[in-house]
Predict the 3D structure of the following.
Amino acid sequence: MSKLHLKLLRDLRSSPFMFAGIVLLLLVGIALFVASYSLYLNLEQSYATSYRRLRLADFTVPVQSAPAQVVTRLRRLPGVREVEGRTIREVEIRLPTQRGRKVTGRILSLPESGWPRVNSLKLAAGAAPGTGLQRELLLEAGFAEYHGYRPGDTLNLVVQDDPLGFRIVGIVQSPEYIFVVRGREAPYPSESTFAVVWIREGVVDELFGTAGAVNDIGVTMAPGGNRRSAVRLAERLLEPYGAETAVPQEEQPSVELLRLDLLGLQNLAIFFPLLFLTIASLSAYNTLGRMVHEQQGQIGFLRAVGFSKATVGLHYLLYAVAMGVLGGGLGAGLGYYLGILITRFYTTQIQVPYYDVSPRWIVLVVGFALAVVVAVAASLSPALSAARMTPAEAISTQGPTGGRAPLIESWLPVLRRLPLQDRLPLRNFLRNPRRSFATVAGVASAAMLLLVATGLLDSSVAAIEFYFKSSVHYDILATYLEPQPQFSLERLRRSPGVRRVEPLLAMPARLTKSDQQQTILVYGIEPDSRLFLLYDQRERPVAVPPDGLLIPESTARKLNLWEGALVRLGLPEQSVPATADFSPAVTPPVPFLPVPEAWQPRYRELLFAPGRASIKLDLDRLIRVSGVSYQPVGITAYASIDQLREWYRAPLELPPKAINALALTADAANLSAIEQRLHDLDGIASVSVISTIRREIDTALEQAQVFFNIMLAFSMALAGIIIFNATLMNVIERTREISTLRTLGLSVGAAVRMIWVENLLAYVVGLLVGVPVGTWLAGLFILAYESESFNMRLVIFPHTYVITVLSILATMALAQLPGTRFIRRLDLAKATKAMG
Amino acid sequence: MSPSPDQVLLQLEGVAKSYVMGAVTVPALKPSTFAVRSGEFLMVLGPSGSGKTTLLNLVGGIDTPTAGRLLFRGEDLAQMADAELTSYRRYRVGFVFQFFNLVPTLTALENVQLVADLVDEPLDALETLDTVGLGDRANHFPSELSGGEQQRVAIARAMVKRPALLLADEPTGNLDFETGIRVLTVLTDLSRQSGTTTIVVTHNSVLAGIADRVLRMRSGEIVEVEEQPHPISPDEVRW
Ligand SMILES: Nc1ncnc2c1ncn2[C@@H]1O[C@H](COP(=O)(O)OP(=O)(O)OP(=O)(O)O)[C@@H](O)[C@H]1O
Ligand SMILES: [Mg+2]
C-alpha cells in the first residue's frame, strides 16, 4: 500500500468520531432511502401482482339492470379478453356477538361454479361455496380478521327485513378490496363496519329476484387492446340498460386510494432522504474543509516534495470515497432489512393477496452510488482547494490568522468592559468562520430535521384532534332508512340521559363547474346547530349560511370556486354499488344515503325492468357558494337544513320538514343504553358512536404514523450525530490552542467554560436559523402528503419546539463530556510539540 | 572568480519577488543575480525578514518569482507550468523545513518511504534513517520523537530521493546547539560524500564556517558572497 494511502487510513483512525459521524450520516440517509423506496416498490409490485393474478377488471360499467346474455356480446368487442357480469347489492348485517350491532354488507355474486373470470379471489382460509342453493358465503379477510370470524361461523344478512343466516365457508382476499373501503369518501380502512361477501349467483338471484340480470360488468383487456375504444363501445352497448360512466381500473376506490397512498409514500421516500443527504453532504463538506485547513502544513510539504496537484486533490477525494463506500454499503444493507420490516408492518392493516417483497437491486445500487456521489460532491471543493494551495503559502501558514478585535465589540461597547477571558469565546466564534459555520450549520440542520419530522406528526394529530374536538360535537349519529318528519325526534329528546338532539338531512350532490365535477355529501343542519361546528379557512368559527352552500377547501380548489361563485347542483349518477357510499370519513355507517333502500320501491321498478331506459332524477340548479370551510377529514358541504330541503324536496319527493339522520349528545353513563335503544328503534339504518369511530381513525392514523415515527427516529439519530460531531470537533481541532492557554496558566475549568460558551453561541445562532427554516420546510413536506380527503395544516405544538430546542441543547451538553475529558487529559507537552 | 558554465547548477538572473499587500508592495527579494554551483555547500545568512526563505522557496520551485529568470541546467523555472514545477520538485529537489512538516499520522520510516515512493531510484528508506542516526527509531511517530530527531527524519526524507539540490530552511532553528551540530553534520556529510548541492538557510552566523560559500542578505538584497576554500567541520564550530 502506498504511504499516502496509509496516511489516509491513519487519519481516519486518528479522528474516528469525525469520520464515523459522516459515515453514519450517509448510512442513515441511504438506509432511509433504500428502506422507504423498497417499501414503495414492494407495495407497488405486490399490488400490481395481485391485480394481475386475480384479473382485476380494467374497467367496470355499472348498469341498472342488464340481461346476463349481454356479456357474450361484450366479449366480442375488439381488444377485450374477458367479461363478467355480476349482481351487487347492499344489505344490513347484524352482528349477534356485538349486541346486534348493524354494519353494512355488500353482496357480490359469484358465478354458478368456479371463480370469477374477472375480479377473482384468493382463498385465505376455508373453501369455495358449493354450487347448489345453500346459504354459504365467502367473507372478505379484513372484516373477518377484525371481528374474528372463521370458516364455519354464521353471518346474518338482513334481506327485506328478514335476517337470514349464512354460513361462512371461506375467507378471501380480493384485488378490489386490498384497502377495504366502501367508497372514495371514506378513505380509511373500514373493515370493522363494512363486510364484503361473495355468494353464488343462484342464491343472490333467489334473494333479490334478479335471475338473468346483472348490474355490474367487469372487463379485462387483452394485451395491446385499446381500452378507450372498448369503453366507448361497451358504454354504448349497455346504454339501454341504464349504463353509467365506466369506472376505469385506476379510479376503483381501493386502487385509487392505494395509489394516492403510494404517491405520498414515494414523495416522502424521495424527499426525506434527500433532506438527510443534503445535510450529510453539508456536514461532509465542513469536515473535509476543516481537515484540509488543518493539514495545510502537510499539503504544503506534499506539494513541495513533488506530489502533483492531482495526487493531492485525489488524496482528499479518496477520504470522501472511503466514507461514501462505507456509509453507502452499510446503509444499503441496513435499508434492505429495514425495508422488509417496514413492508411487513405497513401491510398488517391491508389485505394484500400476493406479496412481492424482494431485494430491490436497483434501489440498493442507486442508494450505494448516491452515498458515494454525495460524499464526493461534498468534498469536491475542499479537495480542489487542497490541490490549489501553493506550497510556499501552505508551508508558511504556521502562525495565527486574523487576530483583530471583531467589529461587534465596537458596536457594543459593553462587551469591551467584560474581562478578556469572557470576550475570548465571542472572538473565537467570529475569528474562525469556517468552524463557526460548521457548528451553526450542524445545529440548524438538526433543528430542521427534527421539526420536519415532528411537524408531520403534530400536524396529523392536530388535524384529527381539530376534527373531533372542534367540529364534531355529537356523541352519536344515526341515520334513518326513510326520510322522516322532524317531529319524530321529540320522543328521543325525552329519553333519559339525552342532552341534545339535532335533526340532520344528508344528501348526495354532484357539483359541476365548467367541465369539472365533484361528488360530495351535503349536510343540512340547523342554523343554530351546536353539534356541528364549522370553521372558515382561517379556522375561525362560522355559522351555517341561511342560503347557499358552504363547501370544503378541497372542493373549492378542485372546482376553482370561491365565496359568491355559482355552481351547478345535481344528483350524482345513481349507482348503487360503486358510489353507494357518500358518508364522510367520520360517519362510516351511513350506508344507504345516495340511493337508500328506503326509496327502493321507486328504484326497484327501474332495476328489475331490463331494457328500460334510465330515468334521471332531475335536480339541476345553479346555487351560490356562501363560503369555504376548513375540514381536516373528509369532504362534506353544509347548508341550512331548510335550504337543503328546498333544493331536494321536489326531485326526491321528500316529506315536509324531512330529516334522514340525527345527531345527539348524551351523558356518558347512558351512552351505550341510548345506542342500544337506537339500534332497536324501527326505521333506524345505522348508529355511529363517535368514540368508536375515533378509535378506528386513531388506529388508521397509527399506520401512517409508523412511517412518520421512523422518520423521526432517523432524524433524531442524525441530529444527534451532527451535533455530537460538531461539538467534539471544536475541542479536538483546537488541541494546540487550548493546551497553549493551559500552559499559560488557564485552569481546566476556565478552558472548558470557554469552549462551552463558544459552542453555546454557535448553538443559539444555529437554532435561530434552524427553527424558522425547519418550520418552513415542514410546511413543504405537509403539502406532499395532503390528499383530497385529508387536509393537514402545518401545526407544530409549542411543546414540540421546546422539546426540539431542549433535546438539541441536551445533545450539546452530552457532546461536551468527552470534550471536557479530552481537555482534562490533555498532555500539554505532547500537544504543544510542533506537529505542522 | 566566476564559475564555468558546466559548474553552474542554477543561475538566478535578476530574480525578484514582491508581495502586494493592498496599496503597499513588499519587496521580499529585490532583483538578484547569482549562480549556485554544482556540488557546493552554500549557506544563506541574514537577519529575520531579510528574504532568506523567499530565496529558498524560489530556488526550490515552491514559489514563483515576480521578475527575472531562474535557470536550472538552462531551463527557466519561472516559465514552467505547475506540472513541470511539480516534477522539478519531485526529481531534483529535497526540502528540509524549519517546522519539520512531518506527516503526524505516519511513522518516521513511513514518512521517508512516502517520499521515496515518488522517485524511480531512491535510497533505501531504512538505511537513510540509519544514516541520520535514527535506524532504531524507525517505527516511532513524530509525536514520539524529539525536535532534533524529527528534524533528522525530515533530512532523511529529503535525502532519500537523491535530489540534485537539497534545501534546508533553518534546519537548526528549533534545536539546541548540540543537536543542531548533529543535524548539520548529517547535511555536510551528505554533501561531501554524494556531491549533493546543498543550500542551508540560517540566521546564526557562527555556523558560517562550515560552508564552501556564504551568501549574506539584508532587506531583500544579496549584500555579500564569501568564498571559504577551507571549511571547518560542524563539530569544530564554537560559540
Ligand atoms: N506571504 C507574504 N505576504 C507578504 N509579505 C511576505 C509574505 N511572505 C514573506 N513576506 C515578507 O517578505 C519579507 C521576507 O520574508 P522571508 O520569509 O523571506 O524572510 P526570512 O529572511 O526568511 O526571515 P526569518 O529569518 O524570520 O524566517 C519579510 O519582510 C516578510 O514580511
Ligand atoms: Mg525564513
Observations:
- Chain A has three domains: 1-56+252-398, 59-242, 473-689.
- Chain A is about 50% helix and 20% strand.
- Chain A touches chain B through 31 residues (CB under 8 Å).
